[in-house]
Amino acid sequence: GAMRHLPYFCRGEVVKGFGRGSTELGIPTANFSEQVVESFPSDIPTGIYYGWACVGNGDVHKMVLSIGWNPFYKNIKKSVETHIIHTFKEDFYGEILSIVITGYIRPEKNFDSLDALISAIQEDIEEAKRQLDLPEHLKLKEDNFFHLPEGKIVNNR
Ligand code: ADP
Ligand code: MG
């Protein structure tokens, strides 16, 4: 399943999605480009993951991530979207996002209402925060991956 791909290191540009994360859910998700998504292992399960994220050469923050099917492409292409558990002053489209995925929470699900979806995501965020404080996940926050020279793009090292 998911575990054999983890930890998974990934770096790429933040691109525009449909703006649904912020407007509908109040939870912005930084989308990776199609090219970065295609560099993911094809057999990595869809679902909700957690790990560490850093924009440019900024601080490393906790994150939750969804690997899912992109309805815009009639669900034939995956999307990979990172919600960083931090309040940013501004958008960061076009910047380089570095992430390490360290754990898996759950598969993708359908929800009966927007409220149900939002509370599931809130629970995912709480679960991610707890898990990331454990030593096996916390140690990846300090990984050299986050301290490489700016602009150097390396997928999964
Ligand atoms: P889009 O559909 O374009 O991805 P979203 O509504 O999902 O739009 O918002 C994502 C954008 O919001 C990111 O690309 C980033 O520039 C910005 N943003 C601001 N704060 C955060 C955050 N904490 N986590 C992720 N993205 C954030
Ligand atoms: Mg988004």
From TrEMBL:
Nucleus keyword on record: no
Record organism: Leptocoma aspasia
SMART domains: Flavokinase (SM00904)
Entry's Gene Ontology molecular function annotations: ATP binding; metal ion binding; riboflavin kinase activity
Domain Riboflavin kinase: 3-133
Pathway(s) where this gene product acts: Cofactor biosynthesis; FMN biosynthesis; FMN from riboflavin (ATP route): step 1/1
Co-factor requirement: Zn(2+)
Enzyme nomenclature, EC number: 2.7.1.26
Reactions that this protein is recorded to catalyse: riboflavin + ATP = FMN + ADP + H(+)
Function summary: Catalyzes the phosphorylation of riboflavin (vitamin B2) to form flavin-mononucleotide (FMN), hence rate-limiting enzyme in the synthesis of FAD. Essential for TNF-induced reactive oxygen species (ROS) production. Through its interaction with both TNFRSF1A and CYBA, physically and functionally couples TNFRSF1A to NADPH oxidase. TNF-activation of RFK may enhance the incorporation of FAD in NADPH oxidase, a critical step for the assembly and activation of NADPH oxidase.
Keyword terms of this UniProt record: ATP-binding, Flavoprotein, FMN, Kinase, Metal-binding, Nucleotide-binding, Transferase, Zinc
Gene that this sequence comes from: Rfk
GO cellular component terms attached to this protein's record: mitochondrion
InterPro entries in the record: Riboflavin_kinase, Riboflavin_kinase_bac/euk, Riboflavin_kinase_dom_sf
Entry protein name: Riboflavin kinase
Phylogenetic classification of the source organism: Eukaryota, Metazoa, Chordata, Craniata, Vertebrata
